[in-house]
Amino acid sequence: MAISDNFHVYDTTLRDGAQQEGLNLSVHDKLQIARHLDDLGVGFIEGGWPGANPKDTEFFELAKRELKLKNATFVAFGATRRANTKAADDPLIAALRNSGAPVVTMVAKAHDRHVDLALKTTLEENLNMIKDSIQHLKSEGQRVFIDAEHFFDGYRANRDYALEVVRVSAEAGADVIALCDTNGGMLPDEIADVVHDILGASSARLGIHCHNDTGCAIANSMAAVAAGATHVQGTINGYGERTGNADLVSIIANLELRKIRSYYQIICSANLSESRMQLLKLQMWRHLRVNHMSVYLPLLTKPGYMHLLLK
């Protein structure tokens, strides 16, 4: 079936979800999950970070030969080029370019403090890194999405710079800029206010990527959509580091049942009973594969609570 580009359901179970404590996916596992996700009808499947670790590099090589998606678009994840280099000469950008994925999602720093402390470069060079990386991959024929990391904390600290990251990304040709609540500390009204502000101050197409440290990842994702985001990221069953990510199972159901389906076209031409069957397969897979996985509750267990205290 043809997936509408008007609204994106973007699955990152194979990368962000795989950071769940106790969840260890083999290359074969990732291929099988990708096929189930394709049958479910998500628009985009993020496969991992080629070039960053041997398992993901092997997975992308096998995917070129063995992964035949009927519905979804395959996505490679990575980062913008290193400081003071050229995108064309960066080996991790080359891995994205050679991944075989028609779409690339790159994480970009949107918090001024992290540019200084993590990248150890200037705010201007970070913008150049974003622009150069997007333009290079676009010139190679790939579609580019940007994950604006720690966006909401960056917005609180320096709205002008966080906004400039969005503007530069859009002007360089990024199709979507996903605003990331990387710390998972936002609340729905706060998310809605920021999304509305950024949409009014830029021409960018916005997405949302929420972590669940306050237990609000699903609600935050829905609030972003209500405020105008047309791209929502998450993982099956809410898998992910610390207390997890936004749960796509609940998000898809809420979008299908509570929003105007003819407008959003979340899973085009899909019958809800068929979708439930695919979710059931994924739930069954969960019990077979992750029976030793650790699960942490938002705010009530150490990973989420301490993370919010220390952010």
Structural write-up:
With 311 residues, the chain is α/β, with parallel strands linked by helices. The chain has one domain (8-310): TIM Barrel (Alpha-Beta Barrel), CATH 3.20.20.70. The protein has 13 helices and eight strands. It has helices spanning 27-40, 54-66, 91-97, 112-119, 123-139, 151-157, 159-172, 188-201, 217-227, 248-258, 261-264, 272-289, 302-310; strands at 8-11, 44-46, 73-79, 103-109, 143-149, 176-181, 206-210, 231-234. Strands 1-2-3-4-5-6-7-8 form an eight-stranded parallel β-barrel, surrounded by eight helices. Strand 1 (8-11), helix 1 (27-40) and strand 2 (44-46) form a beta-alpha-beta unit. Helix 1 crosses helix 2 (54-66) and helix 6 (151-157) crosses helix 7 (159-172). The longest helix is centred in the C-terminal third of the chain and has 18 residues, at 272-289. The protein is globular and about 45 Å long.
